[in-house]
Amino acid sequence: MPTPTSPRPDCTPTQVIRVRSGAIAPAADSDYVAEETPVALEFNGISHATMLATPADLEDFAVGFALSEGIIGGIGDVRGIEVLPQCDGIVVQIEISAACEMRLKTRRRAMAGRTGCGLCGVETLPEVLRPVAPVANGAPVRIPSVLAAMRAMRERQTLHDITGATHAAGWADADGAVMLVREDVGRHNALDKLAGALTRQAVNAGDGIIVVSSRASFEMVQKTAAAGVPVLAAVSAPTALAIRLAADANVTLLGFLRDGDAALYTHPERIIT
């Protein structure tokens, strides 16, 4: 694996004893491992969630998480972001509009006292399966462009090249040119970071595609739809629930993007050869 050219907050050097062809090496070797840090998200001083994430691009992460959770409707609802390292993690303080804060408080009061279902820290099943608005159709996309985007994203996974431990999410235009890539130890976090970067940089995300280095779970489709992107392409398989949501949300869902192959599950009319 390559060595970082300068110190990075998202990976740490370590010592490892190699096993090659069943034999243990006589001496330790140096390597790099990805960092995984508790990141607490606070909205107007209200502690909302603590996630384990790679400590990079946390402003993007905060905005993308807020969008995908329906806390904000767009970057105009964000008044400021401050990243505060603590001895045992990182606190990200996000200032949001008064209207968004009111909605957040109402939502928290509605959940108070209910029995948790244990799904990813969300307290009720409707919160997990909340509906998302169907995305706009966007421009037709050629299948060679989707395949090219996946290859191009892989070439930009610098943290994965160093550590071998992270997922990536990338956004490409309709021609397959990758414009943004974000990495994290968690596939959901990588996609939240990407959505936040698209929003903060005012990218017209609906004119492109998202490619991810993971399977396509329900949450990945949900986050793609919340970002307004009409195509999600995953290197691995989707779940049945992800396919149903993609069909309802007007998201074209592809899986098993490897070499020149892919499987197309929903809204094939958007993909052309």
Automatic annotation (TrEMBL):
Entry-linked Gene3D superfamilies: 3.10.20.10, Cytidine Deaminase, domain 2 (3.40.140.10)
Gene Ontology biological-process entries: Mo-molybdopterin cofactor biosynthetic process
Keywords: Cytoplasm, Molybdenum cofactor biosynthesis
Coiled-coil annotated residue ranges, if any: none
InterPro entries in UniProt: Cytidine_deaminase-like, FdhD
SUPFAM superfamilies: Cytidine deaminase-like (SSF53927)
Any one Gene Ontology cellular component term annotated for this protein: cytoplasm
Catalytic residues, chain numbering: C117
Alphabetized GO MF terms: sulfur carrier activity; sulfurtransferase activity
Subcellular location, record wording: Cytoplasm
Primary localization: cytoplasm
The protein's role, per its UniProt record: Required for formate dehydrogenase (FDH) activity. Acts as a sulfur carrier protein that transfers sulfur from IscS to the molybdenum cofactor prior to its insertion into FDH.
Family, as annotated: Belongs to the FdhD family.
Name of this chain's protein: Sulfur carrier protein FdhD
Biological source species: Achromobacter arsenitoxydans SY8
